Amino acid sequence: MALTLYNSLTRRLEPFEPLVPGRVGIYVCGPTVYSEPHLGHARGPVVFDVLRRWLERQGFTVRYVSNITDVGHLTDDADDGEDKLAKRAKLERLEPMEVAEKYFWAYFDAMEQLGVRRPTIVPRATGHVTEQIALTEALLERGLAYESGGSVYFDVSAWDAYGELSGRDPSELVEGTRVEVRSDKRDPRDFALWKRADPEHIMRWPSPWGEGFPGWHVECSVMSTKYLGDEFDIHGGGIDLVFPHHECELAQARAAGKPFARYWLHWNMLTLGGEKMSKSKGHVVDLAPLFERIDPMVVRFHLLRSHYRSLSDFADEALQASAAGLRRLRGAYASWPSHAGAGSPSEAWSEARARFAAAMDADLNTPEAIAVLFDVARDANKARDAGELGCAAAARALFDELLGDVLGIEVAPATGDESELLEGVVGLLLEQREAARKRRDFAAADDLRERLSALGVSVEDTPDGPRWRRLD
Questions:
Q1: Does 220 lie in the same domain as 154?
Q2: Is 332 in the same domain as 438?
Q3: Residues 317 and 249 in one domain
Q4: What is the enclosing helix (H) or strand (E) of 468?
Q5: What is the DSSP letter of 140?
Q6: Domain membership of residue 30 as a residue range
Q7: Residue 370, domain CATH
Q8: Is residue 382 part of a domain?
Q9: CA-to-CA distance for 297 and 408, rounded, in angstroms?
Q10: Exposed site from 10, 132, 155, 217, fewest CB < 10 Å?
Q11: pLDDT tens digit string along 159-185?
């Protein structure tokens, strides 16, 4: 089965065929680095990290570009308000680039904890101002933009295809939900390619139209095509970016003669206890404190347990369910022998491997792929208990490949400092088991022993009391 992806541009599932055989170019809109990374920053990188891993597993060479916005993203997400970095810089009494550096590294530190590999290229908007001016000049020369009072705007009325990505009727679009017309715009639907810098504006560059700064949308059109070519394979982002950001990206790129992205992939929103996350309302969870109480791998696992185009909720109950599920998989993995002279994993688990691949090829259906791994864990545990150690060893190798390498989940048992925690937890369970034996509740004692065995812990009763060891 060939990989199929849901293309937001055509609104249907399509077989994926790269522009250049054997090579895939991906561009994903990265964060605006003006605050601590939060859960809203996590889903897209995790999803596209898995897509990248899966493509590489199929033999593709992937160039994965994800930008950093460090100028031009205004507080109203359109053409008004303060620059988000400049506003934060005033609040923290730092230079804007200090703010950008601080949160740039905080973001990538968090991604590393989530097991997200670094993009091939991480361009910054401030490093590509010259190219953004050049694209603006090209659109002016084509008669698809106009200068007004030191700012330059894209003329939506001159581009009939505007609205093709979002499906919105251009005649009904009035700058999102606002109805007032800016004095320097001909039409409220028009969007900024270049903005005149007011005297108090900190971040500014010289241009043919005076000192100013690039519009938010033009940044991604420039950086994606610079590193992937005028036409490339996949453009990704959150569903909240479809309009206006991606709509404007597509319009200005194609208006400049660039075919641009062939497949558009959008991940859905995260909710927190059923309510949409909102940075402006403070209804978010920062990643650093979250990782202090929850294993980042649990967060990654939780994100992959829902399809990327579905809502994903981060209620505590849902996270705890994901944590329990990951413990089951890790416990089963730890109980299987690493070597038993068995045949190859492909021989022992060919059907499971095929089902996993079919799920991944079906628009990256990670929930179904994970369900396959739970089935493997159940069947491999039965094989282990039946003495079929070769089959169990093959399952362990399969988990290394599919759960570890493809889904990016660390599957190895706890080591280092966590070994003390493991010893303490097992000790508590053995105390409960001994208490059950003393009150002659042998069913409960046997149940605890079986559950420990499923987690990879062997218990031996001796005259000096129970002893335990971790199964190889």
A1: yes
A2: no
A3: no
A4: strand 465-470
A5: H
A6: 16-267
A7: 1.20.120.640
A8: yes
A9: 9
A10: 10
A11: 999 999 999 877 766 544 333 445 689
Q: Classify the phi-psi angles of 346: left when phi > 0, otherwise alpha if psi is within -120 to 50, otherwise beta.
A: alpha
Q: Do residues 261 and 332 share a domain?
A: no
Question: Cα-flanking dihedrals φ and ψ of residue 226, to 5°?
Answer: -60, -40
Give 298's contacts (C-beta < 8 A, 6+ positions apart): 319, 322, 323, 326
CA atoms of 269 and 256, how far apart (whole Å):
31
Q: How far apart are the C-alpha atoms of 78 and 363, rounded to whole Å? A: 31
What are the φ/ψ torsions at residue 400 (nearest 5 degrees)?
-55, -40
One domain, residues 253 and 299: no
The edge-to-edge listing of strands for the beta sheet with 145-148 is 145-148, 151-154, 191-196, 212-214
CB 29 within 8 A of CB 68: no
Question: What is the residue-wise DSSP string for 167-217?
Answer: ---GGG-SSTT-----TT-SSTT-EEEEEEPPTT-SS-B--TTSSEEE-HH
**What pLDDT is stored for residue 241 in this prediction?**
94
Tell me how many domains the chain contains: 3
Average pLDDT in the 123-133 region? 93
Is 323 part of a structural domain of the chain? yes
Query: Can you give the CATH number for the domain in which 93 is found?
Result: 3.40.50.620
Instruction: State the pLDDT confidence band at 378, using cuts at 50, 70 and 90.
Output: very high
Q: To which H or E segment does residue 266 belong?
A: strand 260-267
Q: Return phi, psi of residue 357, to 5°.
A: -60, -40
Give CA angle at 23 (17, 26), nearest 5°: 80
Tens-place pLDDT, residues 267-320: 999 988 778 776 666 678 899 999 988 899 999 999 999 999 999 988 888 888
Same domain, 433 and 302: no
